[in-house]
């Protein structure tokens, strides 16, 4: 059950090393804050899960933000009602989102193509609007669901583990606080497990069936394959990943708001996956990291920093360059994001992973040419 | 009954906006086969054409009038719009009617923007997958809205209704009811008529002109039309420009009803995609019908009576209807078989 092919094992080891050494290699890039790295890990989980659906089956869901929201709310409710321990919270988040995904998937998967996309979008938007209006008792509306000191926490109370500290209780893992670097390593470990699961799915017969559905669903049906349960399973698994990501968001910052369910969040995860490379193992992770990196780093740059950076230029030129560049950073970082998407889709349609593969292939070919006697052209 | 009529009318103007956006979206999809996520941004650009026009026309000269003194004894600054200096009273009318007049600015601007967009980027995406089209147009939409944001700021820019057209029309009287029973704001009525006019214009253009005939033929079978020696790509480029113009003028006229901000396009885009899909991808009458239908349903769902019966219905009605229609009628109201299903 835990065995992997040699290639996958190498990939997993490399991936784990990269994730766990994040604090080291991100510090020269100026992103080695636990809070930010947690986001990297969480959104990578989200994108990996999305890729299981979109990458393997080709069904483009525009409603995955709903699952992140459901996961967040469930986690906070678990904190409020049961215990501050994160393990039950995560389990509940995954289960609830799974049930949610089952219902939404059951209806949405009756249609394909853009009709499927719009159905998932419609369901997600309904969740979003309801979270703001009718479901306010559960979601606490615009304020967002918060922890309070006098929450019941029945399980904690029963075990007598009610911490009597001042201020709000913090989420714990078996009694240990999960803030700062502990929180990051928690997310990192979950990310590695998620990556492993996605590797297993990619390599399994189940994964092969999903790929078959992507390339030709009709033919799959004709060969006597009932594709429905496979699709539904993929949808639910992918939803569970999103729920887990939502749960982790609430664990690292115990607050759940409806804005996480907005359709722009669903759009974001689509962009992450496509940017990195759809249907590849590493692609979604890279895409998620890049987007989150740009969001946090570019949006933090301000005019003063630009002025300092370009202070070597003559005054007029400096102010011109700074005025132009300041449109692309800080508040305007979305402009950079948009341009980046357009450029990448135009010039690198398969995402960054494909670009990387093309690059290595070209380098290999160039190396092979000098001793290229092996590749003899066949006679005409 | 009157309440019913009033809600019907309320829904119609919003439905008109949905229908206009969805019409352009379907036109682009039907001709070029491109899923254009930047279409909402075009609507937003139309809104800002009106904002720009008003800005230009209200450029003022500030003169200090030594004769007049404020109650504190300081000279009063007199601001007069330049156009009023040049044209007198006619200039004042120009300023007052800036919103409808800016359609004249919006048409060429949107045509140029649309054609530039199609030739610059979308041209390269005919043969790509829908996911890539969505991504590139989504990126384009972000770029457009950020550019608008950097010029006009993030706050909504309200546009005034011309003074003569403020207030409400007593439509009840026209139908023989007592006065003040059924009133409807003039501008909404105008928007409704305007959207009907534009929709009718687009259909007439496609139905009764040679150009429209070629375009319709190209929608049905692009290759064959190409084989007949017709440069179908050029016509389709113009169709894209036309769709941009429709979205743009829809935006211009909508500004007095809803103060435009830079992300307005995205908000309308999601709804209009739902509209297009409910109407059936690639079906122009479907898009128009679904636009009005959803607008009216939304308006009915916001009635207090309905809301107290089913709480929260006003928030979700559009999506709920979309889900039901798609589950009952797989290709939307009037969709054709085999379009966008894989």
For this entry, give a set of tags:
heterodimer; A: 380 residues; mainly alpha; ABC transporter involved in vitamin B12 uptake, BtuC; two-stranded antiparallel ribbon; two-stranded antiparallel sheet; 2% strand; globular; B: 342 residues; amino-acid transport (chain B); BCAA_transport_permease (chain B); transmembrane helix (chain B)
Identify the quaternary structure here: heterodimer
Total discrete domains of chain A: 1
Count of individual domains of chain B: 1
Largest sheet of chain A: 2 strands, antiparallel
Termini separation of chain B comes to 45 Å
Q: Mean pLDDT of chain B, as a whole number? A: 84
Approximately how much helix is present in the residues of chain A? Answer: 55-70%
Largest sheet of chain B: 2 strands, antiparallel
Helical residue percent of chain B?
Answer: 55-70%
User: What is the percentage of strand-forming residues of chain B?
Assistant: 5-15%
Portion in strands of chain A: under 5%
Helix run count of chain B: 15
Spans where pLDDT lies below 50 across 5 or more residues of chain A: none
Order of helices and strands of chain A: HHHHHHHEHEEHHHHEHHHHHH
- Which structural class do you get from the secondary structure elements of chain A? mainly alpha
Based on Cα principal axes, name the global outline of chain A.
globular
Shape of chain B: globular
CATH-derived architecture of chain A: Orthogonal Bundle
The parts of chain B where pLDDT drops under 50 for at least 5 residues are none
Radius of gyration of chain A: 23 Å
């Amino acid at each position: 059950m835990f065995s992997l092919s040699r290639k996958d094992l190498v990939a997993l080891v490399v991936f784990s090393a990269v994730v766990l050494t994040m604090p080291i290699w991100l510090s020269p890039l100026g992103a080695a804050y636990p809070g930010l790295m947690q986001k990297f890990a969480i959104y990578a989980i989200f994108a990996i899960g999305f890729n299981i659906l979109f990458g393997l089956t080709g069904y483009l869901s525009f409603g995955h933000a709903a699952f992140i929201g459901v996961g967040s709310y469930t986690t906070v409710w678990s904190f409020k009602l049961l215990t501050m321990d994160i393990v039950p919270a995560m389990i509940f988040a995954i289960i609830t989102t799974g049930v949610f995904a089952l219902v939404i998937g059951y209806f949405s998967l009756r249609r394909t193509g853009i009709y499927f996309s719009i159905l998932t979008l419609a369901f997600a938007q309904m969740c979003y609007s309801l979270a703001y209006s009718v479901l306010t008792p559960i979601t606490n509306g615009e304020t967002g669901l918060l922890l309070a000191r006098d929450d019941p926490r029945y399980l904690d109370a029963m075990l007598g583990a009610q911490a009597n500290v001042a201020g709000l209780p913090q989420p714990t893992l078996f009694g240990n606080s999960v803030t700062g670097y502990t929180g990051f390593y928690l997310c990192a470990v979950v990310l590695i497990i998620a990556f492993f699961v996605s590797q297993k799915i990619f390599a399994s017969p189940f994964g092969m069936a999903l790929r078959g559905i992507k390339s030709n669903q009709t033919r799959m049906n004709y060969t006597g394959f009932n594709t429905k349960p496979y699709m539904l399973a993929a949808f639910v698994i992918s939803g569970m990943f999103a729920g887990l990501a939502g749960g982790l968001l609430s664990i690292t910052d115990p607050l759940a708001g409806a804005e996480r369910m907005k359709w722009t969040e669903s759009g974001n995860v689509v962009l992450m996956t496509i940017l990195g490379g759809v249907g590849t193992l590493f692609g979604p992770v890279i895409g998620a990291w890049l987007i989150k990196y740009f969001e946090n780093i570019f949006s933090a740059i301000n005019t003063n920093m630009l002025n300092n950076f370009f202070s070597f230029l003559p005054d007029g030129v400096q102010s011109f360059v700074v005025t132009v560049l300041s449109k692309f950073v800080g508040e305007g970082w979305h402009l950079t994001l948009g341009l980046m998407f357009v450029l990448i889709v135009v010039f690198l349609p398969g995402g960054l992973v494909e670009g990387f593969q093309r690059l290595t292939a070209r380098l290999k070919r160039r190396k092979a040419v000098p001793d290229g006697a092996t590749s003899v052209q066949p006679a005409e | 009954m009157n309440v019913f009529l009033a809600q019907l009318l309320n829904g119609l103007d919003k439905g008109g906006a949905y229908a206009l956006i969805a019409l352009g979206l379907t036109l682009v999809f039907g001709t070029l086969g491109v899923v254009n996520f930047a279409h909402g941004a075009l609507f937003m650009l139309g809104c800002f054409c009106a904002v720009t026009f008003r800005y230009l026309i209200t450029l003022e000269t500030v003169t200090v009038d030594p004769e007049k003194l404020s109650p504190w004894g300081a000279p009063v600054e007199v601001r007069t719009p330049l156009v009023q200096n040049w044209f007198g009273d006619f200039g004042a009318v120009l300023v007052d009617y800036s919103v409808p007049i800016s359609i004249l600015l919006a048409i060429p601007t949107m045509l140029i923007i649309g054609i530039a967009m199609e030739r610059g980027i979308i041209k390269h995406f005919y043969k790509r997958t829908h996911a890539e089209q969505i991504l590139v147009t989504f990126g384009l939409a972000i770029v457009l809205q950020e550019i608008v944001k950097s010029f006009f700021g993030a706050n909504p820019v309200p546009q005034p209704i011309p003074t003569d057209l403020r207030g409400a029309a007593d439509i009840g009287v026209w139908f023989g009811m007592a006065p003040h029973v059924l009133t409807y704001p003039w501008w909404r009525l105008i928007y409704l008529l305007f959207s009907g006019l534009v929709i009718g214009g687009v259909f007439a253009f496609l139905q009764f002109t040679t150009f429209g005939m070629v375009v319709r033929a190209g929608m049905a079978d692009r290759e064959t039309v190409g084989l007949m020696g017709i440069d179908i790509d050029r016509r389709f480029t113009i169709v894209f420009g036309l769709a941009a113009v429709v979205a743009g003028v829809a935006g211009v006229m909508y500004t007095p009803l809803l103060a435009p901000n830079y992300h307005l396009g995205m908000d309308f885009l999601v709804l209009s995609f739902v509209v297009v899909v409910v109407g059936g991808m690639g079906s122009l009458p479907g898009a128009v019908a679904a636009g009005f239908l959803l607008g009216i349903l939304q308006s009915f769902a916001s009635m207090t009576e309905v809301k107290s019966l089913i709480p929260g219905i006003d928030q979700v009605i559009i999506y709920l209807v979309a889900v039901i229609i798609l589950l009952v009628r797989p290709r939307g109201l009037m969709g054709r078989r085999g379009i966008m299903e894989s």
